[in-house]
Amino acid sequence: MSASGTSRLGWYARRVSRMSPAEVAWRARDHTLQATWSRRQVTRGQVTASSADQPGHRRFTAVLPPGSAKLAPPEAKAAVLAAADQLLLGEWEVLGVVRTDLLTPDWFHDPVTGRRAPADRYAFRINHRSEAETGNVKQIWEVSRLQHLTVLATAWFLSHDEAYARQVADQLRSWWRENPFLSGVNWTSGIEIGIRLISLTWIRRLLDEWPGVADLFERDELAVRQIGWHQQYLSAFKSRGSSANNHVIAEAAGQLAACCAFPWFAESSRWRRKSARLLEDELIRNTFPSGIGRELASDYQCFVAELGLLAAVEAEAAGYPLSDASWQRLCAMVDSGAALLDERLRPPRQGDGDEGRALVLDPPASSRWSTLLAVGDALFGRLDWWPPTTPDAASSIIGALAGPPRNIAGRPAQRPWQFADAGTTLLRTTSRQAPEIWCRCDGGPHGFLSIAAHAHADALSVEVRYGGVDVLADPGTYCYHGEPAWRSYFRSTIAHNTVQLDGRNQSADGGPFMWLRHANGTELGVRDIGDAAEWIAEHDGYLALRPPGRHRRTVWLDRVSRSIDIVDEIRGGRHDVSLAFHLGPEVETEIDGACAILRWPGAATPGAARLELPPLRWSMHRGEIEPILGWYSPGLGRRVPAVTLIGRGRSVPDERLITRLEFLDPGSSTERPVTSVDVSWCASDLAVNSGPAGEMGRRATRRPDD
């Protein structure tokens, strides 16, 4: 057997080890069904476009109220039309790659590798995880989500320019012909099928007044068959067990939206009931009561909220509303999202992120979270403490379909800063102290379900921003498939602002979307006393070492001195320690022994800081590849060099490694001598008096030379 075959068998063995017996049985059933469904494959040679003989019973009734187009702000309309005009030239950015071939797209071409994925092979015999077989499959799937066509449809809705509608019709007919049922790579993933159904629903809705829309949808037999095929697939194959994360939300949301908008099939009522029940169950399972996503990947919290809100609005408009509990949880997701954002409406960068959108009506360069808040404002009403929201095309149009805002009881009267169920805490300065200092502390579970597919080995990591500028940065994700070394690095412990022991990850990596052992954090003490705020946590990821180790971290924000102190302690024997601090790509760095001077003069909010480092052997890295170190990913498929500081040494039981990040006011000298680190902020009158947090508080009052 080849090395690749052995590796693949090893992956399958590890994957099965993370499944329950029930999940193994379900997957065996799915594999059997996939084998028998090969007889149902439709090839391109079998596809013929024809008008329906008896289309009269098909109606699209899920239309927008009259005058909805006038609700879009003029600047939003202008932005949509500008993006649509670029699309008429074939130009569109896909995951960091500027495409110029989308006037007549090849639905199977990957511009990154130049490969063409299988178009005619039976879908369940394609290994979409293999770049050698499919190329970069995310590039292919992203275009087949048809979200560039929802932008064109929005442009027609706002302008009634025939060119936009004709382009939508031409590309839809092309996709339907080139991707018949179960043929090719675009039928290999349920999440893609669910998102595509949402796109088709909204394309039909936005083009409702276009004279050719019925011939494009309900009078076209191939279009009707495609909508039915998509729903048959989702009804038969669901993400289950250890894979029931955001994928199952997308599958359920897509099917529910399609059942409500296209109730043309004998199974439609049954599909609608089952998908609604699945969506409601999985929304609760996938999110904490606070609204934070259980995957602990901020990007996916936005994605799941979008999916849930779109499906809920669709069901409500069709007369089949979701439960009050589901609406309550969706509102909590929006409110918690509003609380997480920094002053520039940037979310945390925790965990994986692939920039996935449930629906794209505005140019994709627009802020996803700003759109989510604008939609939340239309559906629930904004709270006083929310950051400002600006209506866009999506929020205006979705709000028109939804009707008046819902009244949700129990929403937070003040901006939350601690989400105890998720182990997420934000230490930040007040709105009167500009620029804002924003610090996210990670003290919760590793991730969701047994494989924690989108988690990173980042327990006790911190992100620090100044006026929305990354200073101590989470490096991001960069890639999913095709570059295993890069995938492993961006998920690793050394790639995050935390401590690595003995050169090992806190959690055991079993593959690009699988963790075999999870490091779980516990918050030991969180408090805000006005001028300062403190967070104390520890994690269990190093208990498997010999001797076992435990990492405890205290973070203290002093709002008066505009400084952050990080105190790390390794308990349980001596270990090799690597303490990493990753700087944002806009930060310039000079290091002199135990002090680094940081400046970001060209950023949106210029600033400077002094980073006083504990007594380790410090080195600076930028853009290195052997080994990989010193990188920042602005988005999937993109990476840029950035400075990483690594301090190495041996731990001493109960020794404290103390780091201070002090932000300098504009014009302050950065040349004053660096003295021993002053931790007098944790004087006895501020210390916690009892329990593990109190013990850490008392230890932190000592200076390094005590």
Structure description:
With 706 residues, the chain is α+β, with helices and mostly antiparallel strands. It has 2 domains: 17-42 and 68-402, Glycosyltransferase (Alpha/alpha barrel), CATH 1.50.10.100; 418-700, Distorted Sandwich (Beta-galactosidase, Chain A, domain 5), CATH 2.70.98. It is built from 18 helices and 25 strands. The strands form 7 sheets. It has an 8-stranded antiparallel β-sheet with strand order 11-12-13-14-25-18-17-16, with helices on one face. A 5-stranded antiparallel β-sheet has the order 3-4-5-6-7, with no helix packed on it. A 4-stranded antiparallel β-sheet has the order 8-15-24-19, with no helix packed on it. A hairpin with a 2-residue loop joins strand 16 (588-592) and strand 17. The longest helix has 20 residues, at 298-317. The termini are far apart. 50% of the residues are buried. Mean pLDDT is 91; it is low at 667-706.
Main pleated sheet: 8 strands, antiparallel
CATH class of the largest domain: Mainly Alpha
What is the C-alpha radius of gyration, as a whole number of Å? 26 Å
How many helices does DSSP assign?
18
Specify the helix fraction band. Answer: 25-40%
Distance between the termini: 61 Å
Identify the strand order in the major beta sheet: 11-12-13-14-25-18-17-16
Going by helix content, strand content and strand pairing, the class is alpha+beta
CATH superfamily of the largest domain: Chondroitin AC/alginate lyase
User: What characteristic shape results from the CA principal axes?
Assistant: globular
User: Which fold name is given in CATH as the topology of the largest domain?
Assistant: Glycosyltransferase
Low-confidence stretches: 667-706
Number of domains: 2
The tally of strands reads: 25
